[in-house]
Structures are given as C-alpha cells and as structure tokens.
Amino acid sequence: MDSLFPHLTERQRRLAAAAYARALGYGGVSQVAQATGLSRTTNHQGLSELDTEELPPERSRRPGGGRKKIREQDPAVLKHLRALVDPSSRGDPMSPLAPPLSWAYRALGRLGGWSDTARTGRVGWLALWRGWFRLEDRLTGWRLHRQM
User: Fold this and answer.
1) What does the H/E/C string look like for 38-99?
2) Which end of the chain lies in a sparser environment, N or C, as judged by fewer CB atoms within 10 Å?
3) Per-residue pLDDT band at 139 (split at 50, 70, 90)
4) How many CA atoms lie within 13 A of 80 on its CB side?
5) How many other β-carbons are positioned within 10 Å of the β-carbon of residue 106?
6) Residue 6 neighbours by CB distance under 10 Å
7) Verdict on whether the full-model pTM lies above 0.85
8) Residue 29: which residues within 8 A CB-CB, separation 6 or more?
9) SS percent in the chain: helix, strand, coil, step 5
10) Do the Cβ atoms of 41 and 17 come closer than 8 Å?
11) C-alpha–C-alpha distance, residues 98 and 93, integer Å
12) Structure confidence at residue 84 (pLDDT)
C-alpha cells in the first residue's frame, strides 16, 4: 500500500483503506489504521462512504464543507474595504492625516517603476518590492542629510 497511496487522491485513499479494512473483518479498521497511518475516524468515514451514494469523480469531499466566504459572513465588508482604498478620497499627501491606501499603493508602485500602461490599476509585486527598497534608500538619505 505504501507504493500505491502517494498516487491516490484523498478520497481514493479513504475508499481503498476502507475496502481493505472491510475485507479483513473484525479489527480490520485498527489494523489498516496502523498499517497506513490513516486515523481510525478516517477509515470509518471511508466505510460509510462505501455504503452511500457516489460523489462525482472530481470531488474528494461532500459539498458545503470549508470556510464560508467573508462576503457571506459580513455583506458590508466590501463597502468598508472600498472606502479604505477609494481614489476619490485622495486628499493632500503632505497633510498630517495619513493618505488613503490606494494613494500609498500607487505611489510605492511608481517609485518601483510602475506606469499604468495596461490601465489595470494594479501594481505588480515586483514593482512594489522595488518601490519599497527605493523608499528605504530615500529615507536613509534624508536621515543622513538631517544629521549633517
């Protein structure tokens, strides 16, 4: 089984182990759990899956599992996020108030050599990375200038 398991999906592993445990009879679940490293709970789940209806072949788990989308939990979250990065709330970058996140994001991108030629409004991670280091260099120079 050690040579077969790496090539199987999660569901196929469960079903193969459950079929083997059923063939062994009483105590088979514990023996298979010890031999394969799958938990007894997983083997029992596989046994129940052998007796129930089939899932579509592309699925390993029943639908409905997993974390719910944040938009389903809090429908107002998108409105709050848009308010944070809204380009219309620009303001003066030299004011004592912090500039909006969208301004800082694009300014950092421009420092990194980004120009929105594709008109996507999205700065790539490489331009942000370069912009971050250029900002650090400028801040270091400014601090050195103030010490003189």
Assistant:
1) CCHHHHHHHHHHHHCCCCCCCCCCCCCCCCCCHHHHCCCHHHHHHHHHCHHHCCCCCCCCCC
2) C
3) very high
4) 6
5) 18
6) 7
7) no
8) 21, 40, 43, 44, 47
9) 60, 0, 40
10) no
11) 7
12) 67
